Amino acid sequence: MKILSRAEEIILLSILKLESDAYGVSIREQICKDTGDTWSFASIYTPLDKLRKKGFVKKIKGNPLPERGGKRKFFYEVTPDGKKALIELYKTHRKVWSDVPRIELEFNGGSK
Amino acid sequence: MRREKVVLPRLANLFLRLFLSREDYLEKSGDLEEVYRSLWEEHSRLRARFWFCAQLLTTLPRLIMNSIFWRLEMMKNYLKIAFRNMQRHKSFAFINIFGLSVGMACCLMILLFVRDELGFEKFHANSSRIYRTIVDEYVDGKWEHNVGSPDLLGPALENEYPEVISYVRLFNPSWIDKWSVSYEKKYFYEDNLFFADPTIFKVFSIPLILGDPETVLMDPTSIVITDTMAQKYFGKENPIGKVLTINDAVEAKITGVAKNVPRNTHFRFDFLASFESMPFKWALNTWRTLQFHTYVLLDKKYNQDQLDKKLSPFLEKHFGNQTNMKLHLQPIEDIHLHSRSYNQEMAVNNSDIAYVYIFLTIAIFILSIACINFMNLSTARSANRAKEVGVRKVVGAIRGQLIKQFLGESFLFSLIAAVFSSLLVMLFLPTFNTLSGKDIVFNAQNIVFIGGVLACVIIIVGILSGSYPSLFLSSFQPIKILKSSLSEGQKGFLFRRVLVMLQFMISVCLIVGTFIVYEQIGYCLNQNLGFDEEHVVVIPLRSSLVQAKYESFRNALLQNHAIVNVAGSSTVPGRSVGERGMFPEGNKWYPRNSVFVDFDFIPTLGMEIKKGRNFSRDFPTDVDDAYIVNEAAVKNFGWKEPLGKKIIWAGDKNKKGFVIGVVKDFHYKSFHQKIEPLVLHMTPGIGSYASIRTKSENIIKTMSFIKNKWAEFNPGHPFDYFFLNDQYDKLYRSEEKMGQVFRYFTFLALFISCLGLFGLSSYVLEQRTKEIGIRKVLGASVSGIIIMLSKEFSKCVLLANVFGWPIVYFLMNRWLGNFAYRINISFWTFLLSALIVIAISMLTVSYQSIKAATTNPVNSLRYE
Question: Which domains does chain A have, with CATH numbers?
């Protein structure tokens, strides 16, 4: 199983959250909201592209819109493979986290 | 929503479009634009723009990684492989680069030459609006063009046509060889002295160092000289106000100094004298002689065609109703390349557009020969590269990448060759200048030009020579290559043969061309001219003082036994002949070639009298009313019995006279022209030339005798002379120059072809080493093997001859059409050049084949 990078994980999750309205702009907004950080477009396009090549997301053509200067939207959708990878990742996460002694985390302010 | 139109920053958008695929572009710029719009509406345009650019900047590092870095990485590999290949096959690299750089250097020099040729007269501010008047005459079934015009033409044109803003007339007819110009009794002979209207400064762009262009030539006794002449006559003194004497007759005060005339013009003056001081008054106020050169400046609104159409009524009005005459305007920019066979041309350096084409063709030929070398060698050597191609393909290279790689390699070669070629040009430009009679220098303009040409040549050569190898090499199938070790080199064999044939075809054409040019020049020089041009010394008599002493000078010369005879005449054969309006009985008024001669002209030059008699001292009336015409004139005037026919002569109160003799046709002009009607007219004592026939022995002693006598009779006048036969050689100087340039380029073309053949043969033989070994073991003789090996290439060369011959025959036949008297192209010329090409190519191949044939079969069988 290929391990997803952090950025890829975040992007996959936000696509899932956005359901049928996941495209460049909305994905970026979602991520910015969730992480409280500003992400540039460049920093989401590259992982998106990698995800697409790995077969975890699918690109779907939308309709051209006037507010985009007559260019079409491209929606993203998580494929079954992508979902499987996320579940895999979640499991690994849990396994990895479970062994960490509680004291260490409390020292760091308990932020997960 | 604001009504304002929202647009993405144009440059940034272009950037996206360039670096992204279509779909990616739509998606990404769409996303960006959406946010951009909302930012614009919520905040400001500036903020949106700023954000947009910031977004793009964050993509840069990745972009560079993705698109350039990886490409560079591959590029590094390609370059490495290319250089390794060059190192491993040094002779191959040398042949290619050397051939290409020689080819490019030729190309560059020829283009520099052509650029110079096409740039004539462009320095005049109004060059596109200045025209020269040409009088056309229909003679013997074709139109002849006359550069000369009557003095009344210019003023009439200006008066009658609003299109003509201004005109200028120049007087320096070709029958005047040189003018004698003196300052305080010091004499010089000058070629380029013109009597010109003051409007000359309005029509032409002639910058003055001293003097006001509006007024310098207004005064009838004024003269403008060039900077060089000012230094020649006065050194550092101020020339203004000094008085020069022309032909001991006209006094002219210097009112201005002009900058030296640039080299790229047909009108090269050293002196411009006021038109009104022109001493030959008989040429004025008439429509009947064509002694002047008239230039007109047209208004911007009109063009030449419109005016040309309106000129026929004008002609009728002034010349009378003449169906065989026309008047037209020639753009001044056309003069250099488009007036080769014009009569009375004043330019001495005129060329022909045909030469420009010929040279361009040669440039293309030589460059393509070098390109063919590259193609041949790289495809022939494909077996060596085949494995590399196979491995690359297996590792995942797509065809496009391989094509790019091989194209890139040919670009690399042409780049290296370009560097060498510019060095070659720097090195050989002086040689080329002396050969072609040009004065091309490395100025900023030319360097930019060379740079531009080289860039184009690199691209053309890169694509031309790289296209076939790259398509050919990249088409290999990896399985086949990797399974079998060889035999791919045999592929494309036919194509290579055709290319070799093409190369030698070009070489054959050039060789035959060179031979024919030289044959024709030889023919012109050795042909019987109709008189005896050997051992005749000609002294031009350039001032009236010298002419006045002619008779006594002549008598003094005749005292010497080595001098057979002395004759005076207005011109000598080989120098230009003047034209005079005349009216032969039963014909019409028209300017005809005429020469003033004295009693001794015909016997001294050894011409033959066909009918009647020569001018004779026994007939005192000969001085006044006798003419001798040539055979062409008899035919042209339509006379059955020429003796006693009447001719009326324009000027001199329309003097009448009768024909007393017919002289056999002799060539008084070059072989380009047919022998035209000529009228000899008797005028003792005012000749411009003294022709002295000497005995052949002891010519040096005779010359010093003549020189002493000259100094005795004409103190202060320089002793200037020439031999009559040299004068004839000069007529074919432009052909000789072309022949020379032709010869060098032919040599280069043949050399580059052989270089390629050498490389190709060495490669082919290397591949057949084993075969030759086996043949020898089985009992083949050395000579048998050499013949077998040479056969292949000799076939190509033979075919090259067969295909080349008709082409060159056609082209050279057209070139010979320039000559009224020409050689017939003989079959032997072709055979000889074929033999030369075959011999040279065999020699090239034989070195390799002898080496292959004489190696011990043991060694060759152990090979690999």
Answer: 6-96 (1.10.10.10)
